[in-house]
Amino acid sequence: MESRFGAFKIGLERLLHFMPHLRRFSSSEVELGTAALAALGQVCGRGLRELDIMLGGKRSETAAQAVLLIPFLGLKRLSITIRGMGDTSELSYPDTPTLNMPTLIQLNLTCLVDDALLEILEYVSRGCFPGMRILVLDLPYIGRPPTLSTPCGALLPLFRTVGPQLSTLCLRTPQAPDAAQLLFPLLKKIRKLHLMDGTMPENVVDFLPQRLVELHLGFDLDSWREGHHVVQCLDQLRTTITPRKSLAVICLKSSTAQPVHWWTMATSNSALAGQLMIRAMWLQAQGISLKDQSGKWVGQWS
To answer: What is the rounded distance in angstroms from the CA atom of residue 125 to the CA atom of residue 80?
Structure first.
Protein backbone atom coordinates (compact mmCIF):
# COMPACT_ATOMS: atom_id res chain seq x y z
CA MET A 1 0.00 0.00 0.00
CA GLU A 2 2.86 2.36 0.90
CA SER A 3 4.58 1.75 -2.45
CA ARG A 4 1.35 2.42 -4.34
CA PHE A 5 0.87 5.70 -2.50
CA GLY A 6 4.47 6.68 -3.21
CA ALA A 7 3.95 5.95 -6.90
CA PHE A 8 0.76 8.02 -6.84
CA LYS A 9 2.62 11.02 -5.43
CA ILE A 10 5.37 10.73 -8.05
CA GLY A 11 2.69 10.58 -10.72
CA LEU A 12 0.96 13.60 -9.22
CA GLU A 13 4.15 15.64 -9.33
CA ARG A 14 4.48 14.89 -13.04
CA LEU A 15 0.81 15.53 -13.70
CA LEU A 16 0.90 18.96 -12.06
CA HIS A 17 3.32 20.21 -14.71
CA PHE A 18 0.51 19.86 -17.26
CA MET A 19 -1.94 21.97 -15.23
CA PRO A 20 -0.50 25.51 -15.03
CA HIS A 21 -3.99 27.05 -15.10
CA LEU A 22 -5.27 25.14 -12.06
CA ARG A 23 -7.42 27.34 -9.82
CA ARG A 24 -8.33 25.03 -6.93
CA PHE A 25 -6.42 22.19 -5.30
CA SER A 26 -7.56 20.08 -2.33
CA SER A 27 -5.43 17.65 -0.34
CA SER A 28 -6.88 18.04 3.15
CA GLU A 29 -7.30 14.27 3.64
CA VAL A 30 -4.04 13.11 2.03
CA GLU A 31 -0.45 13.64 3.07
CA LEU A 32 0.86 15.43 -0.01
CA GLY A 33 4.57 15.54 0.84
CA THR A 34 7.12 18.27 0.23
CA ALA A 35 8.04 17.27 -3.33
CA ALA A 36 4.45 17.39 -4.60
CA LEU A 37 3.75 20.64 -2.73
CA ALA A 38 6.91 22.18 -4.19
CA ALA A 39 5.81 21.13 -7.69
CA LEU A 40 2.35 22.61 -7.12
CA GLY A 41 3.86 25.91 -6.00
CA GLN A 42 6.30 26.03 -8.90
CA VAL A 43 3.66 25.41 -11.57
CA CYS A 44 0.48 26.93 -10.08
CA GLY A 45 1.71 29.24 -7.32
CA ARG A 46 0.60 32.51 -8.86
CA GLY A 47 -2.59 31.27 -10.49
CA LEU A 48 -4.07 29.08 -7.76
CA ARG A 49 -7.01 30.73 -5.96
CA GLU A 50 -8.07 28.08 -3.41
CA LEU A 51 -5.82 25.62 -1.59
CA ASP A 52 -6.83 22.95 0.96
CA ILE A 53 -3.72 21.33 2.38
CA MET A 54 -2.79 18.92 5.17
CA LEU A 55 0.43 19.69 7.01
CA GLY A 56 2.29 17.06 8.97
CA GLY A 57 1.16 13.48 8.82
CA LYS A 58 3.38 10.43 9.15
CA ARG A 59 6.58 12.13 8.03
CA SER A 60 5.92 15.25 10.08
CA GLU A 61 7.44 17.63 7.53
CA THR A 62 5.35 20.49 8.87
CA ALA A 63 8.08 23.14 8.94
CA ALA A 64 9.18 22.50 5.35
CA GLN A 65 5.59 22.33 4.12
CA ALA A 66 4.70 25.63 5.80
CA VAL A 67 7.58 27.40 4.06
CA LEU A 68 6.56 25.82 0.74
CA LEU A 69 3.31 27.80 0.93
CA ILE A 70 5.25 30.99 0.13
CA PRO A 71 4.93 30.76 -3.71
CA PHE A 72 1.11 30.81 -3.56
CA LEU A 73 0.79 34.56 -4.00
CA GLY A 74 -2.64 34.60 -5.65
CA LEU A 75 -4.66 32.64 -3.09
CA LYS A 76 -8.03 33.95 -1.98
CA ARG A 77 -8.79 31.06 0.38
CA LEU A 78 -6.30 28.88 2.26
CA SER A 79 -7.36 25.92 4.41
CA ILE A 80 -4.72 24.19 6.54
CA THR A 81 -5.39 20.94 8.39
CA ILE A 82 -2.66 19.89 10.83
CA ARG A 83 -2.18 16.21 11.66
CA GLY A 84 1.07 15.68 13.53
CA MET A 85 3.54 18.49 13.99
CA GLY A 86 6.98 16.94 14.42
CA ASP A 87 9.85 19.40 14.88
CA THR A 88 8.70 22.89 13.89
CA SER A 89 11.40 24.83 15.76
CA GLU A 90 12.85 26.09 12.45
CA LEU A 91 9.72 28.16 11.93
CA SER A 92 10.69 30.32 14.91
CA TYR A 93 14.08 31.28 13.44
CA PRO A 94 14.15 35.01 12.55
CA ASP A 95 15.64 34.35 9.09
CA THR A 96 12.92 31.87 8.07
CA PRO A 97 11.03 33.29 5.04
CA THR A 98 7.49 34.37 5.87
CA LEU A 99 4.18 34.18 4.04
CA ASN A 100 3.08 37.10 1.88
CA MET A 101 -0.41 36.64 0.47
CA PRO A 102 -1.78 40.04 -0.59
CA THR A 103 -5.04 38.70 -2.04
CA LEU A 104 -5.93 36.18 0.69
CA ILE A 105 -9.46 36.77 2.00
CA GLN A 106 -10.11 33.66 4.10
CA LEU A 107 -7.83 31.50 6.26
CA ASN A 108 -9.09 28.23 7.75
CA LEU A 109 -6.89 26.53 10.35
CA THR A 110 -7.85 23.11 11.74
CA CYS A 111 -5.91 20.89 14.13
CA LEU A 112 -7.33 17.49 15.04
CA VAL A 113 -4.42 16.17 17.12
CA ASP A 114 -3.26 17.03 20.62
CA ASP A 115 -0.06 18.79 19.64
CA ALA A 116 1.64 22.11 20.27
CA LEU A 117 0.64 24.79 17.76
CA LEU A 118 2.77 27.59 19.16
CA GLU A 119 5.46 27.64 16.43
CA ILE A 120 3.07 27.30 13.49
CA LEU A 121 0.75 30.00 14.86
CA GLU A 122 3.63 32.38 15.46
CA TYR A 123 4.96 31.66 11.97
CA VAL A 124 1.63 32.46 10.32
CA SER A 125 1.30 35.61 12.45
CA ARG A 126 4.56 36.97 10.99
CA GLY A 127 3.07 36.86 7.51
CA CYS A 128 1.44 39.65 5.54
CA PHE A 129 -2.29 39.29 4.77
CA PRO A 130 -3.65 42.79 4.06
CA GLY A 131 -6.85 41.50 2.45
CA MET A 132 -7.85 38.88 5.02
CA ARG A 133 -11.41 39.35 6.26
CA ILE A 134 -12.46 35.84 7.37
CA LEU A 135 -10.67 33.64 9.91
CA VAL A 136 -11.86 30.13 10.81
CA LEU A 137 -10.12 28.42 13.76
CA ASP A 138 -11.25 24.86 14.50
CA LEU A 139 -8.82 23.95 17.27
CA PRO A 140 -10.05 21.30 19.72
CA TYR A 141 -6.43 21.20 20.88
CA ILE A 142 -3.91 24.02 21.17
CA GLY A 143 -1.20 22.29 23.16
CA ARG A 144 1.71 23.86 25.00
CA PRO A 145 1.04 27.48 25.94
CA PRO A 146 3.62 30.27 25.73
CA THR A 147 5.74 30.90 28.81
CA LEU A 148 3.74 32.47 31.67
CA SER A 149 0.54 32.33 29.64
CA THR A 150 -2.56 30.22 29.03
CA PRO A 151 -3.13 28.12 25.89
CA CYS A 152 -5.07 31.05 24.42
CA GLY A 153 -1.83 33.03 24.50
CA ALA A 154 -0.66 30.99 21.51
CA LEU A 155 -3.39 32.69 19.44
CA LEU A 156 -2.50 36.24 20.46
CA PRO A 157 0.23 36.90 17.83
CA LEU A 158 -2.12 35.88 15.02
CA PHE A 159 -4.95 38.04 16.35
CA ARG A 160 -2.64 41.02 16.76
CA THR A 161 -1.74 40.66 13.08
CA VAL A 162 -5.16 40.12 11.48
CA GLY A 163 -7.71 40.70 14.25
CA PRO A 164 -8.25 44.44 13.63
CA GLN A 165 -9.17 43.85 9.95
CA LEU A 166 -11.47 40.81 10.29
CA SER A 167 -15.17 41.03 9.45
CA THR A 168 -15.96 37.37 10.26
CA LEU A 169 -14.52 35.03 12.89
CA CYS A 170 -15.44 31.36 13.39
CA LEU A 171 -14.01 29.94 16.61
CA ARG A 172 -13.81 26.55 18.30
CA THR A 173 -11.22 26.58 21.08
CA PRO A 174 -12.48 24.56 24.07
CA GLN A 175 -9.00 24.67 25.65
CA ALA A 176 -9.08 28.48 25.69
CA PRO A 177 -11.88 29.61 28.03
CA ASP A 178 -10.29 33.07 28.22
CA ALA A 179 -10.56 33.60 24.45
CA ALA A 180 -13.20 36.33 24.78
CA GLN A 181 -11.16 38.34 27.27
CA LEU A 182 -7.85 38.05 25.40
CA LEU A 183 -8.90 37.99 21.74
CA PHE A 184 -12.19 39.84 21.28
CA PRO A 185 -10.80 43.31 22.19
CA LEU A 186 -8.57 43.01 19.10
CA LEU A 187 -11.58 42.60 16.76
CA LYS A 188 -12.14 46.21 15.75
CA LYS A 189 -14.24 45.65 12.60
CA ILE A 190 -15.91 42.31 13.29
CA ARG A 191 -19.49 41.94 12.03
CA LYS A 192 -20.11 38.20 12.31
CA LEU A 193 -18.95 35.92 15.11
CA HIS A 194 -19.47 32.15 15.01
CA LEU A 195 -18.90 30.20 18.23
CA MET A 196 -18.86 26.58 17.05
CA ASP A 197 -19.63 23.26 18.73
CA GLY A 198 -20.63 24.50 22.15
CA THR A 199 -17.55 26.68 22.53
CA MET A 200 -18.57 29.37 24.96
CA PRO A 201 -15.66 31.41 26.35
CA GLU A 202 -15.99 32.70 29.90
CA ASN A 203 -17.94 35.97 30.24
CA VAL A 204 -18.35 36.05 26.47
CA VAL A 205 -21.11 38.68 26.56
CA ASP A 206 -18.93 41.14 28.48
CA PHE A 207 -16.35 41.13 25.69
CA LEU A 208 -18.50 41.01 22.55
CA PRO A 209 -17.25 43.63 20.06
CA GLN A 210 -19.44 46.73 19.87
CA ARG A 211 -19.74 46.55 16.05
CA LEU A 212 -20.99 42.97 16.08
CA VAL A 213 -24.14 42.49 13.96
CA GLU A 214 -24.57 38.69 13.88
CA LEU A 215 -23.78 36.15 16.59
CA HIS A 216 -23.94 32.48 15.59
CA LEU A 217 -24.07 29.90 18.39
CA GLY A 218 -23.32 26.27 17.55
CA PHE A 219 -24.30 23.51 19.97
CA ASP A 220 -25.41 19.90 20.27
CA LEU A 221 -29.17 19.62 20.83
CA ASP A 222 -28.66 16.43 22.83
CA SER A 223 -26.10 17.98 25.17
CA TRP A 224 -27.66 19.49 28.29
CA ARG A 225 -24.43 21.33 29.09
CA GLU A 226 -24.11 22.99 25.69
CA GLY A 227 -27.80 23.92 25.60
CA HIS A 228 -27.51 25.38 29.11
CA HIS A 229 -24.53 27.50 28.02
CA VAL A 230 -26.54 28.90 25.11
CA VAL A 231 -29.46 29.80 27.39
CA GLN A 232 -27.07 31.47 29.85
CA CYS A 233 -25.52 33.49 27.02
CA LEU A 234 -28.94 34.69 25.86
CA ASP A 235 -29.89 35.67 29.41
CA GLN A 236 -26.69 37.68 29.79
CA LEU A 237 -27.35 39.44 26.49
CA ARG A 238 -30.86 40.34 27.59
CA THR A 239 -29.80 41.76 30.94
CA THR A 240 -26.48 43.33 29.98
CA ILE A 241 -26.02 46.86 31.24
CA THR A 242 -24.12 48.02 28.15
CA PRO A 243 -26.56 48.40 25.22
CA ARG A 244 -25.49 46.74 21.97
CA LYS A 245 -27.19 48.79 19.29
CA SER A 246 -25.46 46.99 16.42
CA LEU A 247 -26.37 43.40 17.37
CA ALA A 248 -29.40 42.45 15.28
CA VAL A 249 -29.35 38.67 14.81
CA ILE A 250 -28.48 35.64 16.91
CA CYS A 251 -28.54 32.42 14.91
CA LEU A 252 -28.71 28.97 16.51
CA LYS A 253 -26.86 26.24 14.63
CA SER A 254 -26.37 22.54 15.23
CA SER A 255 -22.93 20.99 15.63
CA THR A 256 -24.36 17.58 14.68
CA ALA A 257 -26.44 16.12 11.86
CA GLN A 258 -29.63 17.05 13.73
CA PRO A 259 -30.52 20.60 12.61
CA VAL A 260 -31.83 23.31 14.91
CA HIS A 261 -35.36 24.10 13.69
CA TRP A 262 -38.12 25.52 15.86
CA TRP A 263 -40.72 23.04 14.60
CA THR A 264 -38.60 19.91 15.19
CA MET A 265 -36.91 21.08 18.39
CA ALA A 266 -40.28 21.50 20.08
CA THR A 267 -40.75 17.74 19.68
CA SER A 268 -37.22 16.41 20.15
CA ASN A 269 -36.21 18.61 23.10
CA SER A 270 -39.28 20.41 24.40
CA ALA A 271 -37.65 21.70 27.60
CA LEU A 272 -34.82 23.45 25.75
CA ALA A 273 -37.18 24.62 23.00
CA GLY A 274 -39.41 26.28 25.58
CA GLN A 275 -36.49 28.12 27.18
CA LEU A 276 -35.21 29.32 23.81
CA MET A 277 -38.65 30.43 22.60
CA ILE A 278 -39.22 32.53 25.71
CA ARG A 279 -35.84 34.19 25.26
CA ALA A 280 -36.59 34.76 21.58
CA MET A 281 -39.62 36.84 22.63
CA TRP A 282 -37.61 38.80 25.19
CA LEU A 283 -34.79 39.53 22.76
CA GLN A 284 -37.19 40.49 19.97
CA ALA A 285 -38.56 43.20 22.26
CA GLN A 286 -35.02 44.57 22.41
CA GLY A 287 -34.63 44.52 18.62
CA ILE A 288 -32.60 41.29 18.44
CA SER A 289 -33.94 38.38 16.37
CA LEU A 290 -33.17 34.89 17.65
CA LYS A 291 -33.30 32.64 14.58
CA ASP A 292 -33.02 28.93 13.96
CA GLN A 293 -30.77 27.24 11.43
CA SER A 294 -33.13 28.02 8.55
CA GLY A 295 -33.09 31.72 9.39
CA LYS A 296 -36.59 31.83 10.89
CA TRP A 297 -37.68 33.66 14.02
CA VAL A 298 -39.96 31.74 16.41
CA GLY A 299 -42.97 33.65 15.09
CA GLN A 300 -42.29 32.35 11.56
CA TRP A 301 -41.93 28.65 12.34
CA SER A 302 -45.33 27.46 11.18
So the answer is: 14
Q: What is the pLDDT of residues 122-168, one digit of tens each?
A: 899 999 999 999 999 998 877 666 665 777 888 999 999 999 999 99
Cα(300)–Cα(8) distance, integer angstroms: 53
pLDDT in tens, 228-274: 989 999 999 888 756 667 999 999 999 888 889 998 888 888 899 99
Give the pLDDT score at 115. Answer: 67
Residues in the chain: 302
pLDDT at 3: 46
3-state secondary structure the chain: CHHHHHHHHHHHHHHHCCCCCCCEEEECCCCCCHHHHHHHHHHHCCCCCEEEEEEECCCCCHHHHHHCCCCCCCCCEEEEEEECCCCCHHHHCCCCCCCECCCCCEEEEEECCCCCCHHHHHHHHCCECCCCCEEEEECCCCCCCCCCCCHHHHHHHHHHHHHHHCCEEEEECCCCCCHHHHHHHHCCCCCEEEECCCCCCCCHHHHCCCCCCEEEEEECCCCHHHHHHHHHHHHHHHHCCCCCCCCCEEEEEECCCCCCCHHHHHHHCHHHHHHHHHHHHHHHHCCCEEECCCCCEHHHCC
